[in-house]
From TrEMBL:
Cited Pfam families: UPF0175
Protein name from the UniProt record: Uncharacterized protein
Gene source species: candidate division MSBL1 archaeon SCGC-AAA259A05
InterPro entries, sorted: ParD_sf (IPR038296), Ribbon_hlx_hlx (IPR010985), UPF0175 (IPR005368), UPF0175_domain (IPR052264)
Family: Belongs to the UPF0175 family.
GO biological process, one term: regulation of DNA-templated transcription
Amino acid sequence: MCSKSTFSLSNRDKEEIESLVKAGHFTSKSDVVKTAFRMLKERHPEYRTDIAVEMFKDGKVSLGRSAEIAGMSRESFKEVLEERGVEREIEARESSEERIEKTVG
């Protein structure tokens, strides 16, 4: 799935990107940006974790998919969520049910 995005670049960056395409290194300007973003995530794995956490918090991806994006096991990703104070919906629902049981019980 692709969507169109608009962002600003300096004139020099724009010219350099166009030069890479013209030289045949890439098929399009979009290809340059996609490759640069992929390489950025490879060089900084912590960015993948940040992306996964934010997408999970926004409800855009499941726990399993988030762990996959972060490049870690589900259990490791659960630990990251806990360290960052992110409640998983199931846990939030369970704690609400526990409070109700304590109140009623």
